[in-house]
């Protein structure tokens, strides 16, 4: 099962209280930040596009309409020095040609899917946790001056600032479901699987059930509200929608419930009414996994 979501990430200003960003050699650095409450390392990036607003400058030469410029987008590695932000190096991510004669202004899309997937992935040695909370980009334009083209990187009008549009899919598989199934124990309050052995003798059924003598039926218990969850931590998208609704409407009596999300069959040997020995496979008898539904 795939759950899709779309993120629109606008650049965050490097400084507060000022109307400009950190510049390097005349270029504004674009910073994009992840939400720390929304883990991204379990998401697959379907598409990621950096949108840049390009406009013409009135002082361009008469031959500018026949010229082209090239936009280069670099990823700036994190640096330990605030005075030398490029000391960590840069990687070229994409290049896009802009024809000055095709249109004087408008939005241009730069494909950054591979770069964003790398950004979302956990850094090596961090046991599945993403430590790359910031993506820093530098946009350079070769030939923009002669072509009379300008890239809007920082403006007072928010609607023309660069932004990053990301579409993701969270794969909910059986393997992943098992990863998030928690066994109840001391101190566990969230949704979990509680072990429960049922004896057929205690139920008075041992006079017609031959085997087994009992089995672990198990059951689910615990809370579904609390810490934020990514879409892949819910069994169904319906449960994710209810959780988002509950967070925005705290007084509403709506909440996902902790319930079985996977049950397995069991074999039973017993006497029927005519005292025939029957072997039957009964479906959905054992709770294997629990989740918020």
Automatic annotation (TrEMBL):
<dbReference type="InterPro" id="IPR015615">
    <property type="entry name" value="TGF-beta-rel"/>
</dbReference>
<keyword id="KW-0325">Glycoprotein</keyword>
<feature type="domain" description="TGF-beta family profile">
    <location>
        <begin position="176"/>
        <end position="293"/>
    </location>
</feature>
<protein>
    <recommendedName>
        <fullName>TGF-beta family profile domain-containing protein</fullName>
    </recommendedName>
</protein>
<keyword id="KW-1015">Disulfide bond</keyword>
<dbReference type="InterPro" id="IPR017948">
    <property type="entry name" value="TGFb_CS"/>
</dbReference>
<dbReference type="GO" id="GO:0005125">
    <property type="term" value="F:cytokine activity"/>
</dbReference>
<dbReference type="GO" id="GO:0005615">
    <property type="term" value="C:extracellular space"/>
</dbReference>
<dbReference type="InterPro" id="IPR029034">
    <property type="entry name" value="Cystine-knot_cytokine"/>
</dbReference>
<keyword id="KW-0732">Signal</keyword>
<dbReference type="Pfam" id="PF00019">
    <property type="entry name" value="TGF_beta"/>
</dbReference>
<dbReference type="GO" id="GO:0008083">
    <property type="term" value="F:growth factor activity"/>
</dbReference>
<comment type="similarity">
    <text>Belongs to the TGF-beta family.</text>
</comment>
<dbReference type="InterPro" id="IPR001839">
    <property type="entry name" value="TGF-b_C"/>
</dbReference>
<keyword id="KW-0964">Secreted</keyword>
<keyword id="KW-0339">Growth factor</keyword>
